[in-house]
Structure formats: structure tokens, C-alpha cells
Amino acid sequence: MSLAEITARIHKAEEQVGRLAGSTHLIAVSKVQPNERVADVLDQGHRLFGENKVQEAAGKWPDFRNRYDNVNVHLIGPLQTNKARQAMQLFEAIHSVDRPKLANTLARLAQEIGACPDLFIQVNTGEEPQKAGILPADADAFISECRDMDLPVQGLMCIPPVEEEPSLHFAFLAKIAERNGLAGLSMGMSSDFERAIALGATHVRVGSAIFGERDYG
Ligand SMILES: *Cc1c(COP(=O)(O)O)cnc(C)c1O
User: Where exactly are the structural domains of the chain?
Assistant: First the structure.
């Protein structure tokens, strides 16, 4: 599907719930995609991208930033504390703040550097053992802990379990955000971004629907 088609579907989903067309940020998830495909989307004027690995992003985005103005790259995958400094230099936002140790490290580095990317706290809404994210029961306390450290928390992020109806998880995440006074909601991927927008997503993370299937081979 083309970028224009995805954008049209986003606008339609926004209109259906009475939201302003263009009010949802489309994060084009470029992980694993060949550079030609990424360049093609940049050439179409798109500037917001998502990557899930620090190393992979470090290998391609400095060059793209030299070639294109106003590029924004968000980290949407897990972050190890020993890569936090590098991540703060590479990304405009980090969507995977999921534990106190990482929050502490980001706070310390933010003090030292004097700047910090926008942060989203990842919530493990499905309470899946293999998945990153703070457990829902611990979310309120963790959010206030991050705020006490002056971290720029913009919102929450989730990745629903593959076998479950994502809308339940989107609604759950929206509720946690609302009771904590957080405006940002990073939720929705290729298969469910319209449902996420219906439930208030401010950032959708769409990869394969824009770039085609990822070739891990
Ligand atoms: C890969 C990835 C996406 C994009 O998935 P698609 O199904 O290709 O749209 C979104 N969010 C996260 C966290 C991802 O790792």
C-alpha cells in the first residue's frame, strides 16, 4: 500500500470519531527495510520514522539526516541501559521506557546532557511474560516516579498480544493515560491502526503496510 493510501485511511478514521484530519502522527516503521524503500518514503516528504534497534538506527539514520532535513526518528523497541546515552543522541522520542532502572539512567543522562527525547512509557497491557513494559498494576506509580525525576513523559505505548482483540488493550491504555493526565497514546500497527485511532491514538506505528513485508532472511 502506498504512503498516500495509508494517510487517507488515517484521515478517514480520524473523521469517523470527530477528530481533526492529520491530528495523528504516523510513525513509518522502517526497521529491517532496505534503504531504497526508506529513501522512497523520504522522497515523498514523510519525515517521521520508527526503529526498534539502536544499532540498526545508528547504521542508517545519520546518513539519511545528512541528506534530508527535519527527520524525526523514534525508538519503538526495548532499550538496554548501556545503550541509553546513544539512544538519547539518535532519537527524538523513546517509546519503550518500561522499568525504574532505565528511567533512572535516562534521568541521570538528561541532567548531564541538558536535554532529553520525548518519552513514552510502555505498558504490558496483556501481562505477557516475554513482552517488555511495566505491568498495568505498577503503571500509576511508575508514571509518577518518572515525573518526579523530571523526565518528559508525553504518553503511554502498548503492543497488544497477537491473539487478542487489540481494541480492548487500546481502550485500557487510554484509560491509564487519562487517569494520569497523559495526552500521548502510541498504539496501533499495520493491522489495527484504524481501531487505535478510534480509541484515541496520537501516534500510530505502521511498518509493513507502508514498506511491504520485512525480509529477515
Ligand atoms: C515492527 C513494529 C511495528 C510495525 O509493525 P507492522 O505490523 O509492520 O506495522 C510497530 N510497533 C513496534 C513496537 C514494532 O516493533
Answer: 3-210
